[in-house]
Amino acid sequence: MHPDILQGVKDAGFEECTPIQEQSLPECLAGKDVIAQSQTGTGKTAVFLLTVFNKVMASGPDPSGKPKALVMVPTRELCTQIIDDAAKLGKHLPIRSVAVYGGVEYGAQTGALKTGVDLVVATPGRMIDLYKSKSLSLDGIEIFIIDEADRMFDMGFAPDIMYIAGKLPKKAPRQTMLFSATIDSNVRRLAARYMKPDPVMIEIEPEQVTVNAIDQKIIYVSNEEKVKVLLTLLKRQALQRAIIFTNMKITAERLGRSLDANGFKAKVLTGDVTQEKRQKIIDGMKSGTLNILVATDVAARGLHIEDVTHVINYDLPDDAANYVHRIGRTARAGKTGQAFSLACEDHVLNLPEIEKYIERKLEVEWIEEEELVKEVVASQERDRPRRTERDRKQGGQRHDGPRQKRPPFKKEKREGQPHAERRAHTGKKPAQAAGNAPAGAEGAEGAKVQANVEGAKVQATKEQRNRPGQHRRPRQGDEKRPGQPGKHRRPGGGPRTERHNPNAAQASKPVEKQQPMRTEPEGVHRPIILSEPKEKKGGLLKRLLKFIKKPK
């Protein structure tokens, strides 16, 4: 190994190899394809970083600036963690590395790629975006590494990994390595497509998945007492740094507010947090300014924070493998730690699967009722701001404040306008007849008012005629009253007409249906006009012949 690499290892504080490093590092340095399974926090990251450094230093950087090594990871946190470890181990090396992940602008990443890099650590989504935009070239890749391989496939990244692996150079020799805490048969079958035949399989103590140095205990609680029990644990234990895991984002947000209300400074880390805020939270935990972190499983993988003394599963995970990765945030690098799990009614059924997976029974911890801490209920804030109907119509943002009180309805007054004219505006029938002018309307004033009334009546009548669907509806009993035109009745009140029968030779033509009656002003009656009966077949021709033969 290059002397500058050994100097970086010494400066980083490494003195002895862990079992996984001892067995896998010689195989990786020899250029073989490796599938390595080991417990969380045993130094797998250092294995493939030292392999990449040794390869780049032996062959030299690519003159064109194309990357020689590609590391694929499932989360942004793990991506930044590997870059930090690369900076420590490669402190004395002229090796350039860049982290490629989503949630940030493209400018800094594309700028680093243009200047030239040797190592790229990327998440699948942003990696594919840069490749399709031709900002990142894969032509010079000599080492392909998949870290947290089982998590990559579990999170649905299998198609992305296959797409990226298919774009790597096919003729040039390539070394492929997979590292994870848990590797099943499905991962091995998928990985075998892109690895050399018979890759080296390294398993360190597969019968014992969790670290012995972690003191694991289970506490049975009810849903109503979960927060009280958690507060009791936080006050009872000598906490230096603690990570509290929940299954859902909304649970993490509510728990964060409860801890703040009860005097515990805590930050929430979920999938919706921006990358800038994520980095500030992680830096706060590493520096010691933040002691409690509430997180979902997004922070369970690849997050290396020194001296995490306690891990608390506020919710038992649905996947047993996630339990191993959660508690693996403590007791790292040979240190000790404690892990408490709260088993409530909603998640206690996950316990048998977890105990089967880790092949041990969890020790039960009891908390007396007198020991429970009194909880200070957090303010009832909405998890998501409410959006009013007005905001939906106008496309605005959600409304956080109280609903605005609607002003009382005020009737509009039209001053200086006659009563009948105001009624005409509403389309209603004027209340006064044509000849009934208001009392006291004499001379010119009375004539003017009467003219206005007549004009309003005529205008209302025209509007009603021109409006579609304003015809008079049939009154109840129209069909029963003799002498009144109604449905299927002649104007004279005769019997109903028979419907036309085309098979009957002597059948008479039915009378056409009359048009609906229009509403007329009072005192005006229009006659009902029925259509003339049609000429019988050949009637016009007979009359024409009769006219021609008529003697002059």
Describe the protein's architecture and organization.
The protein is α/β, with parallel strands linked by helices and 552 residues long. It contains 18 helices and 14 strands. A seven-stranded parallel β-sheet has the order 3-4-2-5-6-1-7, with helices on both faces. Strands 10-11-9-12-13-8-14 form a seven-stranded parallel β-sheet, with helices on both faces. Strand 3 (97-100), helix 5 (106-115) and strand 4 form a beta-alpha-beta unit. The longest helix is centred in the last third of the chain and has 24 residues, at 443-466. The N and C termini lie far apart (135 Å). The model is unreliable at 382-393, 396-402, 420-441, 483-493 and 505-509 (pLDDT under 50).
